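Example record used in the benchmark description.
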Amino acid sequence: MRFVDKDLLSVQEARILMENAGEARKVLAGFEQERLDRIVVHMAQAAAKHARELAVMSCEETEYGNWQDKYRKNRYICEYLPEKLKAMRFVGIISEDREEKMMKVGVPLGIIVALTPSTNPVSTAIDQALIAVKSGNAIVFAPHERAAKTTGRALDILMEAAAEAGLPDGALSYLGTVTRQGTEALIGHPAVSLVIDTGVPEMTEAAKAAGKPFIYGGTVGSPAFIERTADIPKAVKAIMASRNFDYGIVPAAEQYIVADSCIAGEAKREFERNGAYFMSGDEEKQLIGLLCPENGSQDPELVGKPARELARRAGFSVPDTVKVLVSEQKYISDRNPYARALLCPVLVYYIENDWVHACEKCIELLANESHGHTLVIHSKDEEVIRQFALKKPVARMLVNTPAVFGSMGVTTNLFPAMTLGSITAGVGITSDSVSPMNLIYVRNVGYGVREIEDRMAGDAEERNGCADAAVLSTTWQTAVPKGGDDSLDDELERAMKKLLEWMAEEE
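Model output (structure tokens):
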């Protein structure tokens, strides 16, 4: 009998993929923005044709969420993202100021390794593939084991379309034999320029340990504050639509509601009218006993399940119209399971006396499980909104909009993205909605517009008030080594030789 060591096979495959990506990177270096744009459009069009098939496949393989909402995400990223990118430049000269005589040149980082989640495998993979190609980078994917077939199918479609449009072999690829060891081999490869971890928390420590620049988009729930001046029906409708979308697995989705006490009763009635079910104390215990049975961590088999199914499995019944289960809580602590991120249509309802106390509660929630990812405020009071924007330790704050759709750029003008950076201490290099701009570095070019004497003269005038020309001349001459201009030339020549020696040693 022959035994195959899957881990060794995965590691070997990772090394081959990185070698191929390295060769592809050299070819990509010669691609202009217009050529990359044509490839991006062709990839997006090909993926759009399979958006429904991939959504259904994702649900069948992972058993997370519902295919209808996944289909909407797939369509959105295939159609709206390329439209948004169309007029944007990230490679070559990306901006030029002729008056100031300055230019900015976009330079690809090189090779990206992307870890895709089981909760949003298709839309995330498409998004990252498109922005990597748009910015001239090679990208290698490490799919989540639970979504390996779906992610592979999506990437096969993209790879075929990209090859037809002229993308070099190896510039877009993925790990076919998925193991933790293979993924770690990708992350730790010397050629990797950047690691993107979108909702794969179990690989966060490995990504940090690799010592590479690292973008982290966590799997969290967001606090939402309903302030007393808010349009209550509109706010509740937005929260319900967002929390129930794909059965609560989108990272930015609201999980914690903080209601101003003077409108809390009205808000509760509005939630109930929109399909929320406020559980009794016994039902809360039954549900959390189901979701987090022993060690307090959530059972992955209950992620992305509809509210009615969760209630049924927990042992109580709810009306067929129920979309979200709600637990009324007062405190936040490590011992309270409802204060933890739950990737399902469950809301936690807090009441605070005023916006100042609500502000403190939101800060607690952001520091607890939300990891500074996203905060929502529903209010008409611009001063309160400004105070929240100034004080909250959060990557993005959304105002009067659903968290899911606002964070993705559907209902806001934020960049359309499926990877949303957070501000967790020590995790990730950006809080941006990740775009091609995060996958390049910018080379700044400045032309000489004044002589050294001009700048030094200006500095001297500033220091000495109204110094005359003779004093300025003396000031400058004392800065020049004895022997005059010839001696200065000698100094510059020696410095240049030394610089060339250092460069030769580094090579």
